Amino acid sequence: MIDLSQNQLQGHLPRSLAYCTELEYLDVGSNQINDTDPFWLGTLQQLKILVLHSNGFHGAIRSPETNYTFPNLRIIDLSHNYFSGNLPVGYFAQWDAMKSVGAKNLKYLDGHSVNYSMLITIKGVELEYNKIQDGLTVIDFSCNRFEGDIPEILGNLEGLHALNLSNNAFTGPIPQGQQFGTFPNTSFEDNQGLCGKPLSKICGDSDISTPPPSTFEENQGPKLFFEFGWKVVVMGYGCGFVFGIVIGHIVTTRKQDWLIKIFGKKQHQTRISRVNRRVNRRK
User: Fold this and answer.
1) Mean pLDDT taken over the chain
2) Which residues contact 9 (CB under 8 A, 6 or more apart)?
3) Which domain holds residue 134?
């Protein structure tokens, strides 16, 4: 049993762990380990519990190099890391301990004189197991960057009690039947590309539809209409103002000429009348 959880361990996972051939329990969760696929640990034939959650493990998980990898594994927690790519289908076919239903007689996993205990977090609910039943089987791959389809072979793990694939980038329909019928929707939520039971999203629904107006568009709509109307008014007012000036100038100019002609003619006629009166008086 090796429990190094909740420390500040950094760097890579020591490859020398592969020599611990009798190791059954390895927990390095909640550290600062920055490493790639650690599935070289699959050579540990007796390993039953592997906890790597809340570290900096990253990259895709490679296919198994042998046909006998993690045969006794019952609990694996890779949550809250940065694993990516498709799920490692080849491993699920070799996890024999998860294929059988738990023993009828109640037994607990122990390291000879020490009982195994651990915290298992599923969908934000942290469960503390002071003793781990021999038949308990858990797969927690949540909060990573896994993608692609969920392999149907997971349904062959008939002894699997808890499956958590939430908060990833899986796509396509969720496999139905077999063990999949025992998992709640929380096992698959927060994967936008997934559909089918137990999720409410039905496969085949057309995603091509008129999207509702965004909050920005809704808030800006009346305002844009008002601004557009105001611009039209201003433009109309400006054009009318210029047009009025031009017409006024033309009218005023022509009016001056018209006044000059009229009043000039009247003044000329008045002068002629006065001259004629004077001439008549002298006579």
Assistant:
1) 76
2) 28, 31, 32, 33
3) 2-207
